[in-house]
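Hey, I was hoping to borrow your eyes for a little while. I've been puzzling over a protein and I'd love to understand its fold better. The fold is given in discrete form, as structure tokens running alongside the sequence. I'd be grateful if you could look everything over and explain what you see. No rush at all, and the record is pasted right below.
>
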Amino acid sequence: MSSPIVFISHNRLKAGTRERFADFYRSEVEVIKAEKPGTLTHLAYVNESGTEVTFVHVLADADAFDAHLQGVQARVDASRDFIESNGFEIYGAPTAATLETMRGYAQSNQVSLRILPAEVGGYIRLG
């Protein structure tokens, strides 16, 4: 049985865009929820000053992460008016293709990519 993967994306929220971003995100996340069943969790958190937004994803397994990345460039392009990447974290073992893709995103955005592939144990409670 393959293990879940946690993917966290840290971003700078552009000045004056918090409310427009929130509306945009609520719309986009509904599409992801409908089209990406292996994306078990997709949450966004904004800091108190409204300058940063962090996305937390829990993906069912490596294949779900691959599926989640399908169409990601279009989603990134659509969000450029609101956010810029600050860094990524991956907890779990994605496929080699996903690692290559994420390393490319990190390099092209000149941000960090932290990978912790070895799960020690634990659980995710669903329901």
The mean pLDDT is 94. The longest strand covers residues 5-13. The beta strands are 5-13, 39-46, 52-59, 83-91, 112-116.
